[in-house]
Amino acid sequence: MNIQEYNVKDQATWCPGCGNFSIHTALKMALSELNISPSSTFVAFDIGCNGNGADKINVYGFKGLHGRAIPLAVGAHLANRQYTVFADLGDGACLHEGIDHLIHAVRSNYDITVLIHNNQNFALTTGQATATTNKKKSMYGLSDGKPEKDINIGELVLSLNPSFFARGYTGDLKGLKDIIKEGVKHKGCSIIEIMQACPTYNPECTPQWFGKRIKSVECTNEIQKARSNVIITDKSIKVGIIYKNTKLPTFYDSITNRKNIKTELVDEVKQYNVKNIIKLLD
Predict the structure, then answer these.
(1) What range does the domain containing 170 cover?
(2) Which tens digit of pLDDT belongs to each residue from 235-266?
(3) Confidence class of residue 64 from pLDDT cuts 50, 70 and 90?
(4) Which of 17, 195, 242, 252 would give a disulfide with 199, using CB separation of 3.0 to 4.6 Å?
(5) What is the CATH number of the domain that holds 46?
(6) Cα–Cα distance for residue pair 238/222, rounded to 1 Å
(7) DSSP 3-state of 184
(8) Contacts of 63 (CB under 8 A, 6+ apart)
(9) What is the reported pTM?
């Protein structure tokens, strides 16, 4: 597919230097190189800066409620598995209202790709702290610093024994594109954390700051090694396909009553005459 097929007339309106531009472009590049057509792609967008991309890409896109992009994506996938399905959401939505959906998507191993934009703040609402914001960091509304501990997305996901976890970086467009491609090709729930620049509300994390810390790692199927690779220090943030387990069955493949059924659920929807039910209610 030509990457132009995914373009629309409207221009994205993120802040200059925002990492969303890279994520947006990497997604289109990945779809193009995998030859997945716009009409075969569904992206569930969340509320937040990332959600402002919902009408800026030529795919089937739907903006759901805050923190609910993952169940929306799961429903679309289970209804019609012929679509390539993404959930696209920020660290705030994912780890606050949506943390239960992340946990159960990994546990169930739905065959979707989850893109978590991690800019360490609620940027759309002027920079409040999220669960990934470093403890003691001063943020809007917390001038004395965030009091709680932060959550490492990689450590959380790996504690659930996932089938796929990767971490990308918006300053490496090619690397991020390749990670997304591998996530789509993986049969199972692919969780991709994306370390994202936010020049407006997280200005300390400049490209130069990231450049001194980003280090690539090789994929492993050893969970303990993967856990050591997701640890973030002041000197090291490891990126790449960090963990993959191809032996875990997907949720759909685990449903006994769907064995050997060729049709999709969407094909089985029928119209039913409800007149008699309505009469009973009169």
Answers:
(1) 3-281
(2) 999 999 999 999 999 999 999 999 999 999 99
(3) very high
(4) 17
(5) 3.40.50.970
(6) 16
(7) helix
(8) 45, 46, 47, 51, 54
(9) 0.95
